[in-house]
Every structure is written in C-alpha cells, then in structure tokens.
Design goal:
heterohexamer, A: alpha+beta, Alpha-Beta Plaits, 4-stranded antiparallel β-sheet, 7 strands, B: mainly alpha, binds adenosine-5'-diphosphate
C-alpha cells in the first residue's frame, strides 16, 4: 500500500474530497497545518512595523491507498488542487507497511 | 426641576437642613451611579478585552490579569488615600488627608464639585477614572512586563502621578486655578497615560521579534468587543462628567459619539488609501482615538466642532501609530502614546479653540464656565498648552523614576525564555486552550 | 412627581421661563441617557457578535467591520441630515432641513415627542435606532457582500428608506396621523429591516456552498453573548421608548422580557420536537424573535398578551426560518427576514389586537393613546395592516433600486476566489488566529 | 428632594391622589430600571460566560444553554406565580395568589418595599434575582447534567425553595420578622444557591476523570469577561437593592466595590503564596467571592468593614474551594458552594457584626433599620445565625428531594458516552469550531 | 524501527495513552485532525438548509517504536481504541529509518 | 528523497526555520501537536484537584529533502532546536518515494 500525503490550499479541500470520492476513495484524514515554500516571505505592515509572514495556512490530507490506485490518486489530487498559482502545494508518497481497521481488525487493503 | 425646587425652597423659607437635603437629586444620582458602572465596564471587561485581543495568544490571560489586578489594587489605594489626595482642598499641589480611609464620607456628605449627588457616588465615579488611567499605560508594556513589577508600578504611579495631576486640574489645584479646561480627562487621563506609556515603552525596550516576527493581533473579535464596550462606557465617562442628568450631559454624549464615529471613518479611510485595505484594527483604533480626543472638550463644544475634532483625531493618531512610531523606533506595543497621548493633546488644545459659553454655561459667579477662541478668547489655547506642558514634564520624569526604581528592586521585564514561552504559562500557570 | 411640580408651578404662578425649565426631568433624562447607551450596546457589540458568531470563521472580522462601519457612517449621516428629515415637522412624507447639522439644537431645546428630556438626548436615542436598523439587514448579506458596496448601501438606505419611514410613523407623517401604532419600532425597525434583508438576499444570491457545504455557525458562544446583550439592551429600546422613567417604561420592560422568554422556550420546544434536539442557536433565535415581535406593542399591552405574542413569535419565526425558507430557496443567511420581518409583522398586528388604554393611558387631548381589539376597537387591526403594507411595498422597491444601482456602479458581491478565501483576509487583510 | 416634595405636599394640603402620584420618583425609577438591566446582564451573558469559560471546550455551548433556558423558564414561572408567592402578604411561610399572572399589577401599583417606583419595575428587579440564584447552582452540575433534568430542576427549585425563602426573609415572612438582616441576598441568593449546589454535587457524583484528567478551564478569557460583567452588574444587585438613587445606594456600591477588590487581591496573594503563581482564575474567583460575601451586608456597613469582609471572603473562599474541597472529596465543579455558600455565610454573619444605623438609617417607625455588634447589638449575630441555619436545613432537604425525584423520573445524568463526547454535540447537536 | 500512526476517536485518547503506558511506551505525539471513511456523509439540517458533514473530529497519534514492539503496540491501540462502532479509526505502520533525540543526540532505538 | 519530521518546542520554531533557510531549505510544513515523552507526568493542582498533565504543546515540522541533504538537515534541526532541557523533542526520518509539485507537476527532487 501507499500513503499519499498532500499539502493543499484550504479553499481546495472540498474539491479534492469530491474528486477523490469520484474515483472511489472512501476515507481520508485532514489536518490544519502551516507551510511555506516558493510562496513565502511576503512582507506585511502592521501598525508601522514590517514583518515577514513566513507560514501560510494549508491543509494536509492523508490517504492510504492500495498500490494499484496510488498513481490515480496522485493525479486526481493534482488536478483538483491546482489553481495554477504559487502555493498550490505538494504531494508526497511513502510506502505503507501495514494498515488495520480498529473496529474489525481487518488488515491492509481490506482496512482502507 | 432643580431650579424649580430651589425657587420653591426660597419662597417657602425652608430651613437650611431642608435645603441641604433637597440638593440631592435622585435623577442626577441615578445617572452618576450608572456612569460609574459604565466607566468600570470600560476597564473590565472593555480595556481588558481590547488589549487582550491585540496581543499574541500566549499572552492573552496575562494581559487580562493586568487589568484585573490594576483595578483591584487602585481601588483599594483610592479608598485609603488616593481620593483624599486628589479631591480634598489641601493646597495647590496636593489635597490633604481629611478623607483618609474615607473618613467623614457620611450619608449626607456631598462634594463641592457634585452638589446634587451623594459624595460616595462621586468618589466612586472618580475611582473609575483612577482605575482606567494606569490600566491604559499597560498597553505599552504588553507581552513583556513582570506581573509583580506591574503591581508595584501601578500602585506607585497612581499615587505619585495620577492623584497629584487630578488634584492640579480638578481638585482645586494650580492648573484648574489657572483656568485650564479639561472636562473629562484629556490631560488627567489621556495625556497622562500616553506619556507614561511612551516612557514605559522606552525603558522596557522592544518585544523580542519586534520588526521581524508577526506580532499582529491574534483575536480582533475580542478587540471589537473591547472597543464597543469602551465606546458605550465612554458615555458614562464624558456625559457622566456633567455630574447631572441634564442638557450638558446630553450634549457631551452627542459630541462624544460624533467624534468617535468621525475618527473611526477617518482612520479607516486613511488606511484604505495608504495600505489598500481598511483593517478592523484601524476602525476600532480610530474610534478610540476619537473618544480619547473629544474627552477634554466634551462638555464645552457644539456638534460641528466634534466633527472637526474627530477628523483630526483619526488622521493624526493614524499617523502617530504607524509612520511616526516606525520612524522613531520605540515599541509602544498597543499604541497608547500614539492614540491617547496624541489624541489627548489635540483634544485639550481643541477645547481651547472650540469651548463656548453656549454649551458650557455660567459658573457660580455668573461668568462663562468656559470659553475658547470661537468665543473670542484665543488666550485659552495658551492656557491649555501650559497645562499640557506641565503635566507632560511631570509625568515623564516621575514615571521614569518609578520604573527605574522598580527595575532595580524587582526587575521590570520577564526573562527571554518566559517572554518566548508566553506570559500566560510563565507567570500565571494557565493557558488558553 | 412631574405632575406634582406642574401643579405647584401653576399654584405659584411661576413665570413661563421657570415652567419651561421645570419640564426637564433629571430622572427621565437619566433613563434616556442610559437607554441610548443600551441601544448602542445592542449594535456594538451585541449585533456585531450575534452575527459574527453565526458566520464561518473566515468571515468573522469582516462581519464585525460591517457593524462598526455602519455605526460610524449612519451616525454622521444622522447628525448631518437624517435626524432633521425624520423628526422635524416638514410634511406628511418627510421632515424638513430645520435641524440640518443639528442647528438649533441648543441646550434648552426639547422635542415635542419627549418634553421632559433635552433634545440632544432624544436625538441620540433615535440615532441608535437609525444605526441598528440598517445593521440588522447585513445578516442577509453575510459572507459575500463587498465592504465598499456595503458602505454605499447603508448610507443610501438610511437616508432613502429609514428616515422617511421613521417620519411617516413617528415624526408627524401620514402613517402616524392615520393612527398606526408602533411603540418602539415594529414597522420602522423590524419590518423595514426584514423586508430589506429579503430583497438583499434575493439580489445578492446564495452563498457558494449553500445547501451542500456546512455553513453552520462557527462560534455560538459569541452568538450567546451577542443575544444576551441584545436582550439587556432591548430594555433601553422598548422601555426607553416611553421617554420617561415611569410605570409605562416599567410595563414595557416587563412585557418585553416576558415575550423574549416565552419565544425562546417556544422555539426551543418546537425544535426539540421537530429535530430531536434543542439547539443553542434555536434558543437565542427564539429570544430575538420574541424581542423583535413585542417591540411595536410593548408600550400598549398587558403581561398576559406578552405571553401570547411570545408564543406566536417563537413558533412562527421558527417555521419561517427553517421550513418556509427552505421551500422558498432564498439564502437569507442569518434569517433577518424570518425573524425580524415575520416577527415585526406579527407584533404590529398584535398591537392592534391587544393595545389597551389601561396601559397606554390618555394622550394630550384626553383620548386613549392607543386601543385595540381588546378595548373593542377592532378597526385598529386594519390600520396596522395598512401601515405594514405601505412600508413593505416602499421598502422593497427602494431597497431593490438602491442595490441594483450599487451593483452597477461598484459591484455588490466579492469575487468567488475572495468568497472562498474568506472576507477577513480578502477585504481587511486580517485573520482570527 | 423626595422629602422636600412630601413636605411641600403637606404644606399645600395636596389631595390624596396627588400625594399618591407624587410618590413615584423618576430618579429612583430610572435607577431601578437600570439595576434590573444590570442584574439580568449578570446572568446573560455574565454568569453564562463565567461558567462557559471554566468548563471544557466540549461543554461550552451546553453550559450557555443552561443559563439561557433557566432565564427563560424562571421568568415565566415568576410572572405566573413566583412573584406572588414570594412578595405578597400571605402568611409567615409563603405569600398568596393575589398577584397570580400579575393580576392587579396596574400602572399605578406600587409595592410596600419600593414605594417610589412602579410595581412593575420592582417585580422585574426581583425577577432578575430569582433568575440568577438557580442559575448559580448549575456550576456544581457542570459537564454532566441532562438538559431536560436541568429544566425540571430549575423549575421546581425556584418554586419550592427560592420563592419560600425569599418570602421568609424579604416578603414579610418569619425570618424578616425575626429581624434577620439580608440586604441584597446573602441568605436568599448565595447561601441558598451554595447549599443547593453542594447537594447537587453530592447527588450527581463526580465528573468522569475528576482527579485524574485535566479539567482546568479551557478559556479563561471568557471567564474574565463573565466576572467583569458580574462585577459591574453587582452594582445593580446591591446598590439597586436600596430601591432608590440615594446615598444608601451610593454607599452600597462603594462597599460592594471595595469588598470585590480586596477579596480579589486576597485570593491572589494567598494563591501566590501557596502555589507560587497568581492565577487569573484565582483573581476572578476572589472578586466573585468578595461580591457574594458583601451582598447581605452591603446596605448596612461602612467602608472599613468592607475591607475586612473582603479579606475574609478572599481567604476563606480560597481555602474552601481548594484544600477543604479536596479533603471532602466532592466535585462541586465550578465551586459554587466554596464561593457562594461560604461567602454568603460569612457575609450574613458580618452583617450582624458591622451593621450600623449610621448607614442603615431609621425605618418607618423611627427605629434603627439595622444595627449590629458595632452598634452594641451583639444579639444580631445570633439572629443572623438563626436565619442561616433555617435556610441551610430547608434548602438542603428540599433540594435533595427534588433531585432524587427527577433522577427517578427522567434521570439526572447523561450517559458516560455522552459525557465523554461532550454535552454540546450530544445534547444540542452543535459544536464550537 | 516502525512508526505507528493511528486515527482514533477523541474520547479514546486517554485510554489509548494509558494502555500504551502499561506496555512501556514512553512517548507519543497527538494531533487534532478531521477524517471520514465508512463513517461519513450524514446529512444535517441547519436552519432549513441540508448539508453533508463530511469530516468528523478525530485524533491522530504517532508512536515511534523498536521493530520488536510494533506488533504489540498495534494490538494495544486496537484494543484500547475499539468501541465497536463505525468510525473507530485506523492504524497505519511505516518503516522508520532513523530517530534522533534532539537534546542528547542519541539515535534510533535509544532515542525513542 | 527523505522525509524529515521533527517534534520541537514551539518557542524554537523560528530558530529552526531560519537555520534551515541558511542551508537552503526552501519549504516546510508545520503542525501544532501535543506530545509527551521523558518530559511527562508532572502533577498540577487546579482548585484543589490534582491531575497529571500528560500532553504538552509541541510543533511538528516536516521537510522533504533530497537524499544528499538529509544528514545536514537533521543536524541543523538538532542544533537549532536544542535548549538542553528535557522535552526538546525528536527527529524522525523516513524514506520518501515520490514528491509532486501540484502547480507544475514537477516530480521528486525538482518538486521539493
Ligand atoms: N520541502 C518541503 N517539505 C515539506 N513541505 C513542503 C516543502 N516545500 C513546500 N512544502 C509545503 O507545500 C506548500 C506549498 O509549497 P510552495 O512552494 O509555496 O508552492 P508551490 O508548490 O506551488 O511552488 C508549502 O506551504 C508547504 O506547506
Ligand atoms: N484511506 C484512508 N486514509 C487515511 N485515513 C483514513 C482512511 N480511511 C479512513 N481514515 C481515517 O480513519 C477514520 C475512521 O475511519 P472510518 O472508515 O470512518 O471508520 P471504521 O474504520 O471504523 O470503518 C476516518 O475518520 C479517517 O480519519
Ligand atoms: N516514541 C515516540 N513517538 C513519537 N513521538 C515521540 C516519541 N517520544 C517522544 N515523542 C515526541 O517528542 C517530544 C519530546 O520528547 P521527550 O521525551 O519529552 O523529550 P526528550 O526527547 O528531550 O527526552 C514529545 O513531547 C513527543 O511529542
């Protein structure tokens, strides 16, 4: 199995969720995070004091998927999350050794 | 009605005791009781929330604790000796100890400045001013002052700065005698607090991260609630200073509201123009600037003047809290000087310009209670400036001395580690979850 | 006491000047000063918080900014020309310019509708009504209106809709002359705001995500605080509308409170029954419904009627804000129409049913100041309906025209991208951390 | 002025009708109208926020819902029958039904205990006391009581405990006749609520996780706002209990504020000493302790006594809410007994010690309205103790019976699963985002 | 080493922490997240507007453990977090290459 | 590529961010988390009731880096985050299979 993680713009969460739903992804975990990358270092002025806003709000989503689906999931997230502007985010894929559904004890592909 | 009763009293040859009793007006007393509640509400929760909303999340409870503890501490000091020092005859420099521990403040006592209300009510009303003035200063010390040092500072400042200055201007002291006009506290409250704040900011030094990290307000909703309650409470502050429920109170409330509204719009417009967006922080700061600025003039002027004063307040305080502060490089964290110091100065001078006998009426001796340039009395502006200069110098020096002394004795500023961790957990062992 | 003094005045053959002075009652003035503060508190922070708590987190500061800026803007317009248009004699359709820039509002001025208080206080009291009415409308525009468009709309609406309607009903205009009863603003405030809100919702269109995404209130604690302050402030709104601290004020306060409590319980019970759980949003909405509904009747009715009105308010507004709204398909985001429009209508009709001379008393001419069906005057219900119909039509048309004009000139609605990102950061460059 | 008018009335041989009318004072009425608003504000939003800020995040809305629904429910019961039971003549144990549904409460009615204000205002003022007393109890039941059980309990308790006790002490009942002094509710409000809270805590049992999990307040900013509004509102509670805008109200406000400030500092100092850090929770708890404790004595004592009472309140309630509670092992979640029960007892006894005719004045018969040990009347302490013992026993027994009955009928406590999940979502289907 | 991640019901956090403590697990990181899976898509009505609540609050816990302990940790979490209802959550296990204790510089098994 | 995760003290975030910036790390994701480890189990008293504060606030940072940089990144975080006190936190390193930049579709080393 693969564990696909993506850091996306908060406003795109609903679109990504729907797109994944359409390719049959049934579960997902989302976390509010802050990030920076290319999109960084803009200077704001607050009451006359300049400061650099380094971190911007993002949403991290995590989806465990069977190996076979991984490619499509990455593609789907990419399409649904892309606005074309800087700060659209990143997708990271790792190997997932094991998955367990707590309620039933089902394992691996059955669990996700 | 008061007049009616007095006329009647005369006609019926009432006994002196009768006449004395009849002076207490239940309507005036009701209004001053309410005004006292309103001005207390300005500090708790008004100012506490305004300040708490503008600091970072890790310092929010500590900021509340400062307003709370200041209220409690100053109240006790006021009852013990502060009221006596400020509002008894004494001499030109200070009152005396005749109201020490409120002795003599019996059920039938009345103060000369408030003949139609029981003295207990007047004492309480003035207490709320003595509370909010030092509490205002704390905006300059946000995020970095020790709680213990803060307590020492508040106690010393209210006795050594607030009480004398209140006596000079209001309590029968030399500035009042010189004719300085300060209806509800431009000099006594706002300039006093603003100057002390500037000195505090300079002596404490900048917050860690000032100019590099994001120090923007973490929860402006609290700021909005705080300023809203300040605004509402200010009706008690200014209209209550008429010490009667009459047309003067009505006009004071009117000009207060007009100045607040105008200054809020002015600051909003200026920021929209300069920065491209009107911020909520700007709108509420403008409202506070208007309220503080109108204060010294509020019982003396007509509505049109309130619009001009509001405009000046919004624009000048915006500039003072942004461009000017940045150029000077001090970290007056919540802009107490930029708003209250600058606003108080403008308003005190404006009282010299716009005060008119049409609103101020006649005093006991049948002379105009106040008149400014618009009444042909340009000299009043000079008198106002004299009052400002005296208080700025006195306040700056004594504040600096107090702070330096406390720094030597207990230390003013928390450790860097505590400042980074946040005062809530470091000083009070609590956090906002 | 007033009567006593007047009697005495007559017996002692006081001079006219004396008599004129004696009319100002410090007790009545104290109460109206306080009522003004209370009604301002209804908007700031009451309504600001109520609305801010019901939107999504990304729009909370923008929602506060709307209440703040509306307060400031309307205040200035009121002082410049609004008060004059609404509350001077003029003609049946509109007042005149005799109080332009408050000219003539001197220290001894009093308004015919409030003879025992200084006119400045009455003008300020009425200002707070002129502030909250347009501010109420904004609930229908939540989460999507442009800040600049909002300012234009508020300014135009208060001058073109609020001032005329206030004149018609209260200021000597044709609806008041026709005998329409509206004690504290069922037509002028609640129907007016409710209808304008419905029109606004229809013209602005639905929020992105309406019907599919979770748009539930993000912080009902703020909503609870907001409604609590509305409730407390409503004592100033309704009991203050007696313009005196007397038994009528006391009875208005009593029925106001009873209606609020009853409607809160009624909405709670209805929701519990229909949805299985009593929500906090339901309880507070019920309270607001009760308060709005009782408003036009509050100075005319007895306590038992308040229970009936409260019941009707809770049930009808619950239905209007849920089943009815869903069926009709408009997105009146915070249910201004469902609560204020529907409640105002019920209450205005109820005034025609329950008004009784036992509470309303006699007017200057010795006739019943108000009497409804319970006093045998069933025709009053028709008169009330007439007032409602006229204002609904006028308000709907003019509101629509204003909105369309602004849409053409500056655009009413933010871009989709801004709406998705949230108005706080998009319009004001600030966020709640 | 009142006296003046009455004297005049006599001299001019006014008709009885005239004299009756003249008794209503617009100033006193204004103050009592405002006091009513202030005391309502103590519950909504004051107490609601104070309690909501001290629970865990998952129970914040449920806690608000309790205060809201209690307010609505008690208001209706009060109007229907509660006021009549508590404040009509009846017998020594209970009033009668002569004000059932407020019948006879006409525009010219006045209550014997408040001759200068319309009875509607007095009824409303007393209603706000009947609201906050049961609402206080809910702090002991936080985080685990069923909403439906809560409603039954509040309704039963207000009728079976509050109304009788209010009648005994204030409404012409046997405790008042015995000379028990309770100016604004030490016995009726604070001991009553405190004892009921202790019984509730014992019968409900501890919260899941008590003693092992972190149950500390999740948002003390709300607590600070809540207590600030309680403090401000308490001016209406205590100074309003003078039922006049006079020197007695002024002195009551003065001692109230002094006690609050002193107790806040005392609790803060004690906690600083014992735990090493002064917590915000401690400061606000101290303030509430001082306010509750001074309440029964507030119209009878001089300022010096308020300092002593404040000190005792801060230290004793700190001990009762920490060391003592821990030793006894009950889970009075928000320390209603430790603060209100203990504080109310201290204050009621202190009234017996410090009451002085210099403040209390003379009653209708020309005798001291109150005098305690300091006036040489040590027996008063015994009378106070008698009042306390009677009410503690009655309240404890009836509260226990009510709770047991409700537990059998509908169940008092939510399921473990609901308690773990949080009451907001479980009972109201809502969450704070 | 293995990195065990579990998404559980918030109300179960304390039980899981205690159970892990009993088998000697000395450290853990917890994050508030939102998730959906089988337990999803229930419709709520708010003021007459229906909407789908897609994400429910969950807690994600992360525990780095020596290889030998991984099985027991998974089992322990499973037992402590199971209520038997839908939405009990999932356990995911990955391979952990390296762990460092910042304070001391200790590595891998010594660090966790 | 490697995915470096570190749990650090909140007050150290700015220092870590700067230090990473100096060695050329251009992106990062940060999450507010709660954790315990050695630094745990201190007893607090609230209103007379003792309880154990198990979880303390921490920040989790995540940085995807090319294999070559991983060692230096770990070292840099370690230095910037170390205060020498208990609770300084941990660094975990996993293998990262794939990275995608959503905006451009760039992959792996180019994407991070
Ligand atoms: N090397 C990295 N490791 C972990 N997260 C990263 C890294 N680089 C970027 N991110 C995350 O991705 C988000 C978007 O990246 P950014 O470079 O701003 O935009 P884009 O990918 O469109 O160029 C950042 O806010 C951050 O949360
Ligand atoms: N494929 C997945 N990838 C990541 N997280 C998931 C996945 N499926 C479920 N989850 C997480 O696990 C939680 C519980 O899963 P759910 O399917 O609702 O319950 P159950 O496992 O009891 O059937 C979800 O709320 C979500 O946070
Ligand atoms: N085994 C573990 N798995 C996951 N996170 C851990 C583990 N051990 C510790 N942590 C995280 O690291 C943080 C610091 O660890 P701790 O042991 O308290 O300090 P130190 O590493 O300085 O001894 C903890 O608060 C927790 O978030």
């Amino acid at each position: 199995m693969k564990y696909v993680t993506a850091v996306i713009k908060p406003a795109r969460l609903d679109q990504v969720r729907e797109a994944l739903g359409q390719i049959g992804i049934q579960g997902m975990t989302a976390t509010e995070v802050k990030g920076y990358g290319r999109q960084k270092g803009h200077t704001e002025i607050y009451r006359g004091a300049e400061y650099v806003v380094s971190f911007l709000p993002k949403i991290k989503i995590e989806v465990a998927v069977p190996d076979a689906l991984a490619g499509r999931v990455v593609e789907t997230i990419q399409n649904a999350a892309r606005s074309g502007n800087i700060g659209d985010g990143k997708i990271f894929v790792y190997d997932l050794e094991k998955a367990v559904r707590i309620r039933t004890g089902e394992q691996d592909d059955d669990a996700i | 009605m008061k007049i009616g009763l007095i006329v009647l009293g005369g006609m019926l040859a009432a006994t002196p005791a009768w006449a004395a009793e009849s002076k207490i007006s239940s309507g005036d007393t009701a209004w001053l009781l309410v005004s006292t509640a309103l001005v207390l509400m300005m500090t708790l929760p008004g100012l506490a929330l305004f300040y708490a909303g503008m600091v970072r999340k890790k310092n929010i409870l500590a900021t509340c604790a400062q307003s709370l503890a200041t209220t409690a501490l100053v109240s006790i000091l006021w009852v013990v000796v502060g009221y006596s020092l400020a509002f008894t005859a004494g001499g030109p420099w200070l009152g005396d100890f005749s109201r020490f521990m409120l002795k003599g403040l019996t059920m039938d006592a009345a103060h000369d400045l408030a003949k139609t209300v029981p003295e207990s009510v007047y004492m309480m009303f003035q207490m709320t001013f003595a509370i909010i003035t030092p509490a205002l200063i704390l905006g300059a010390a946000a995020d970095r002052i020790k709680f213990s040092a803060m307590l020492w500072f508040m106690g010393a400042w209210v006795l050594l700065v607030y009480c004398p200055v209140a006596h000079w201007v209001w309590g029968g002291g030399f500035l009042g005698d010189a004719g300085v006009l300060d209806f509800a506290g431009g000099i006594v409250v706002h300039i006093n607090a603003g100057v002390a704040a500037l000195v505090t900011a300079l002596i404490l030094g900048k917050r860690i991260g000032y100019g590099t990290e994001n120090l923007a307000p973490h929860n402006l909703t609290l700021g909005v609630v705080g300023v809203s309650l300040l605004w509402v409470g200010w009706f008690g502050f200014n209209a209550g200073s008429a010490v009667a429920a009459d047309a003067r109170a009505g006009m004071a409330m009117t000009v207060t509201h007009i100045a607040a509204a105008t200054a809020a719009l002015a600051w909003m417009a200026a920021e929209w123009f300069v920065n491209g967006k009107p911020s909520v922080l700007g709108i509420v700061s403008g409202a506070v600037a208007g309220l503080g600025t109108i204060t010294p003039a509020s019982g003396y002027i007509e509505p049109y003047a309130a619009i001009l004063i509001g405009l000046a307040a919004g624009l000048a305080c915006f500039w003072a809290s942004t461009a000017f502060k940045r150029r000077m490089g001090y970290d007056d964290s919540l802009d107490v000087f930029g708003v209250h110091g600058v606003g108080g100065t403008i308003g005190t001078l404006a009282a010299g310009v716009f005060a008119t006998v049409a609103v101020a009426g006649l005093n006991d001796k049948g002379q105009p209670a106040a008149s400014g340039w618009v009444d042909g009395n340009a000299a009043q502006i000079g008198i106002q400036a004299y009052g400002i200069v005296v208080v700025v110098i006195y306040c700056a020096i004594v504040t600096a001395v107090i702070l330096k002394a406390i720094d030597m004795l207990v230390g003013l500023r928390v450790s860097d580690e505590d400042e980074r961790q946040g005062l809530d957990i470091a000083l009070h062992g609590e956090t906002l979850q």
